[in-house]
Amino acid sequence: PPTSLAIRGRLLSFEGDPAVEGPSVVRFWEDGTLVVANGLIEAIGESGDMLAGRAKGLPLADHRPHLVMAGFVDPHLHMPQTQVIASFGTELMEWLQRYTFPEESRYGDPAVAAAGSRFLLDELLRNGTTSAAVYCTSHPQSVDAFFGEAERRGLRMVAGKVMMDRGAPEALLDTPQRGYEESKALIARWHGRGRLSYAITPRFAPTSTEAQLEATAALAAEFPDLHVQTHLSENEGEIAFVREAFPWSKDYTEVYERYGLVREKALFGHCIHLSDRERTALAAGGASAIFCPTSNLFLGSGLFDLEASRAAGIKTGIATDIGGGTSYSMLRTAAEGYKVLALKGEKLPPLQAFHMMTAGNAAAMGLGDKIGRLSPGYEADIVVLDSEATPAQRRRMERVETLGEELFCLMTMGDDRSIVATYAGGRLLHERDKAPFHPLEA
Ligand code: GUN
Ligand code: FE
């Protein structure tokens, strides 16, 4: 494949401070062309200028009239839960025991973990998602499988081995010592290799003893630049459990604060039932809150308060949470996010939603200087979107006049059928109208 190419279409990107996840400057080229070289975006501008200049003579992918934007970023999902999605009838704690833990127990088998990782990454690419923060299982083999598949595809991925030493079947439990040592070995093997980063991943407070949280604190202190990912304040039953298990703590967030886990690049999934004190603590620590709307609706967990999260100054992302979540699509996720906020009288305007799915989620993950926008020097992770992929979309688009309206229809009505092509690291890894592309056979 060529190391340089040009991509033409209706280009949309969000600029502004790469460390800040809030709404930023919108850049739009109705007929734009960008140049990709060596996996990076090298130049971007009006097609007239670009085709006579930097893009001259390069292979050209002409995606007009489709929209072209940075690949979607999904800051919270579970690799071993692709066969847990749509498990009937439970809230979080029972859902974990009845469906999720038995399923995750299978992932000690490297063949199961490899098949699950392959499926997940192909499906993310089919949905336009090029980067994610991923929970594997407590088995180190599951992390080897996942990172191996991500490396083959050249994806920027953040992932980690789940640490959990209580409250689950034996096959899923580690110990404080083993969780620490296995995590440390995985960091040595994978962190910083190509585009891969390791995330220290205690599942959540209910499945770790204080001894394990102490070992986690030691690991986090040894690796202050690493991501941390866990769950926080998702479900009332979960919160009651934490209150009993950590009687010294005034609230859920203080448990994580005590062990040094509320810090930059710490991603807290859900954050639904937080007090003002907890929001202030997350903001002060530089941590991120991750809104998981399809999961929160499906498990009946509650309604995330985006306004309160933003007002407190917390970096905020939006994610699928597969397999509590029900769709791999960030478009479907944004649509459900809009509805959750509507129930609270809040609004999620389309430009803000697309900013969140790209540059905002990248910033919430501390990757705002590498991915999430179409700017020179950024990694060439790109999605091409068709606003008229279905009869219903085509019908609705007849009455659309502005880019904002188009984007709102795209997020409200769109899904994988709207994903025309997905590039990662400058390579075309998914094309809607072609047979599935398998990098492994290439
Ligand atoms: N809390 C602890 N583990 C999980 C999980 O796997 N999914 C969700 N949604 N919440 C959790
Ligand atoms: Fe989760």
TrEMBL record:
Residues 433-442 have a biased composition (Basic and acidic residues). One of its GO terms (biological process) is guanine catabolic process. Pathway: Purine metabolism; guanine degradation; xanthine from guanine: step 1/1. Its cofactor is Zn(2+). It holds the Pfam family Amidohydro_1. GO terms for cellular component: cytosol. Binds 1 zinc ion per subunit. Coiled coil: none annotated. It catalyses: guanine + H2O + H(+) = xanthine + NH4(+). GO terms for molecular function: guanine deaminase activity; zinc ion binding. InterPro entries: Amidohydro-rel, Guanine_deaminase, Metal-dep_hydrolase_composite, Metal_Hydrolase, Metallo-dep_hydrolases. It comes from the Bacteria. Residues 67-428 form the Amidohydrolase-related domain. Its EC number is 3.5.4.3. Keywords: Hydrolase, Metal-binding, Zinc. Belongs to the metallo-dependent hydrolases superfamily. ATZ/TRZ family. PANTHER family: GUANINE DEAMINASE (PTHR11271). NCBIfam families: guan_deamin, PRK09228.1. Catalyzes the hydrolytic deamination of guanine, producing xanthine and ammonia. This is Guanine deaminase.
